[in-house]
Each structure stands twice: as C-alpha cells, then as structure tokens.
Automatic annotation (TrEMBL):
Glycosyl hydrolase family 13 catalytic domain: residues covered: 37-349
Transmembrane segments: 447-467
Signal peptide: 1-24
The name this protein goes by in its record: Alpha-amylase family glycosyl hydrolase
GO-annotated molecular function: hydrolase activity
InterPro entries found in the cross-reference section: Alpha-amylase-like_C, GH, GH13_cat_dom, Glyco_hydro_b
Organism lineage string: Bacteria, Bacillati, Bacillota, Bacilli, Bacillales
Species of the source: Metaplanococcus flavidus
Cofactor(s) in the UniProt record: Ca(2+)
Keyword list, A-Z: Hydrolase, Membrane, Metal-binding, Signal, Transmembrane, Transmembrane helix
SUPFAM superfamilies the record matches: (Trans)glycosidases, Glycosyl hydrolase domain
Amino acid sequence: MKVKWISGILSAALLLSLSAPASADEARALEDESIYDVLVDRYFNKLGANDYDVIATDPAAFNGGDFAGLADQLLHIKDMGFTVLSIGPVFASATYDGQEVMDYNQFERHFGTEEEFNDLLDTVHDNDMKLMIDIPTQNVSSQHVWVDENPDWFTENGDGTYALDTSNMDAQSALTEFVSGFIQQYEIDGLRLQQTEEIAPDFIRYFSQAIKEIKDIYIISDAEMEPVEGLDAVVLPGVEETLRSSYKNFDEGTSDLPELLENAEGKLIQADSLRGSRVTSDIVESQGFPPTRMRLLFTQLLTMPGIPVVQYGSEIAMNGSELPESHQLLNMNVEQELIDHINNLNSLRNSSEALRTGDLEILHEEDGWLIYKRSNDEETWIIAINNSSETKNFSVPAETVGSDKQLQGLFENDIVRQGENGDYRITLDREIAETFHVIDEQGFNKAYIAALVVLYVMFMIFLWIVWRKGRQRKADEAAKSKIVRRT
C-alpha cells in the first residue's frame, strides 16, 4: 500500500509538470479549445430573487439556475480544464432551455439581470476562459414580438412554435442587426446557431461575414452536418452514434472508430448533445457500468483530433433517454473519480499541441483494442484503449516511436521499455485506457529513487519523534506516580 501511495504522488507530480497551462496572453484558436455545454437553468441556483414559479422537482419547469450560479460555481468547470463555457440561449423565453424565445432584446428573467450577465462574463474572462451563447431561431414562441409584427418572416411548426425563415431578406437583416448589436454591447467570445441544419446556407454566409466584421468570434453549428461557409466548425457527422455504440459496453467492437478519428480534424466531437438522450442511457440499456464506460469514452474524446464538446452532467454520468429527463439539475455532490479523470485528460490536452492539432496515425484496431499515435515535431503520444473483456497486447515497432525510448504511462503508472527485438510491447487489462508519453530512455530513474529515499527518511524521522514523545510521556507519568505515593 505504501509503495502505491508514493507512486501516486510521483505520478501526480509528473502529470502536473506536463499540464502547466499556457500563458493567458497566448492566443487560442478554436482547435485549441474544449467546450463545456450547459443550460443556465440546470446548473446552479444562486439567487432566490429571480425564482419566479420555480419548481426544482419538475423536469419540464424552470428549476432556478441563474447567471450568478454559473459565476459562483465556475471553478467546477475551470478545474476540469475546459476553456470555453457554452451557456445556451439567454433571451426571454417561454421554456427553461431558452429555445422558445419571446424577445431577443431581453434577458430571461429567471436567469438574471444584465448586470449579473456582465458579472458572469467578467468571471469567465478572469479565469482565462471564453463565453459562448446560442442563437435559437427555429422553435421560437408564438408570443415572440416578431411573430405578431412580421408574420411573413415565420413558418409555423406542428407543435405551436414558429421557425424564422432565414431565407427571407428582412428576417435575415433583423436577426443580423440584433446579434451585431449584442456582441458590441457584451464581450462574448462565440455564437452557436441552433438547429443549424434547418438554416439557409446563404444566411449563414451573410450572417457570419457581418458578425466577423465587427468582432472575430467563434461561430459554430449544433448539428451533425457537412461544413458550410461561414461556420468555424460543425459537429462531425456520425460522431455521437459511433462513440455511443463503441463504448456502451465492452466487446462492442471498434471497427468504425478509425474512420471517425481520421475525419475529425477541425470538427466538433461529442458523445452527447443537449438535443436528445444521454450516452449514459445507452450504457444502462446495454447493462454496462457507466463510470468505466465513460472513463474509456473520455480518454478517446479528449485525445483524438477535433474540438471536444462535453455536455454538463457528463462528468457525473447523468442519465436521461429523452427531453426533459436528460436536462436534469446538476448534482455536484458526487464522487470525484470521473471528474478528476476529465481534469487530467484536459490538462494534458491544454498543454500539448500534439494532442490538440498533431498528426494522427492508427496503429491497431481489432476486437475492442484500439491504439493510435498523436505527434508533432516536439512530442509523441500513444493512446491505448482496451474496450474488451480480456487482457490485450500489442507490440509497437521501433520505427513508429524511435529507438532508445520509453513509453511513460500517466494513469496506470506503466513504463514500457524497448524489448530485445526493438519493439515496445503494450499490455493492458480489460476495460482500461492509458495515455503514454514517448520520452528518451531513462534507465534507473534517479529522481524517483531519490524521492523514495526522502519520503522513507521523513517517515522514519516521524516515527522516531512519536516514539520519543511516547517514551517521555511514560517517564513523566511514572515520576508523577512516585511523587503521589511518597505524599
């Protein structure tokens, strides 16, 4: 037990040294970001003053989350290593998710005031993060001020909501004018268009050009679709289905993952979305064990090419097969193991350009045993994921990583050294993932041995001090007893 404890300390120190954050002054591109996707109402309720008809036990009602709650509990997101906070729509809405907009010119009163929104912005920026909001257009409320004033701008949906006709020139101009004014007034860093697949491509080009002339902010899609001019990134087609089917249980097969990995560069990658069910629901239905499944899934999501988007609650394996069940109020009083794993992976990704934008090489894929390499001129990583029910082995040839190297595992404390035949043989137990850093052969790790010696000496000194104090206490008690007997 003592050896494992000491080894854990040293591994944590290694991880910390590799994961030092980039300078706040260092500009990040979208490919460098990782996005945490949340609904304001479902995160944290800080202020009771804006709890109008709030029913925290009703998944279809407003639950009380607000801008102040996000600002107050931002460190939960920051500590997991995310660099962009996406908070969904913020405008006056008939529904908790902000989609049924009634007035773009007002903040949703349940979420808070303009001052509280600005406080949230300041808190996000003070933590070297970026803030993104959603622009909903395809399910706005029948009470939207534009519906009454300009009915020809809309088409009616079957559920009583209305879709803005983004091919209508007047509607295009009105929406673009509003958003242009919003980004000039508030220092947000990104916009996500909701139900982007339903929006006219010509409008996206027009809208993006107008916005970026004012401020060069991110404009992304919320839908799996082919790239469209004007969008900085779209969700990789097939990514949710592929990741879910591959990791919902062990021995599911990984044959679709190589193609996914090879097509992911520059795309948004996610296993969940706020538009439907949770990946945990697939895991439970397949009788998988969510913590283990999510650990493997996150290992791939945060080490593969692409821009990861993680929905709130994924860090606690939130369940839900449909809306609004999949939009539960976030419970932060949970075990930290999965949260810590996300933090470790995100910290590596934030510190490693190779893991964010480096080259990809698939080394092996068979029967749930996936191994790939991420590298650039400065560094090389080997990611191994054993999503099977048995121990797996694979020999990485020397030409893949070079000679006289060693593979330093960061999570399972494994070190793989070059064998006599020149290969590096990786062995992983069932349902285990490891991220290996390729470094020069170290031989005996003098720093490791020195740390062991220091810890051992300190421990022995501590025992000696305790022993001396105990001996002195017994001597004092014996002296007192003699005095008592004499008197």
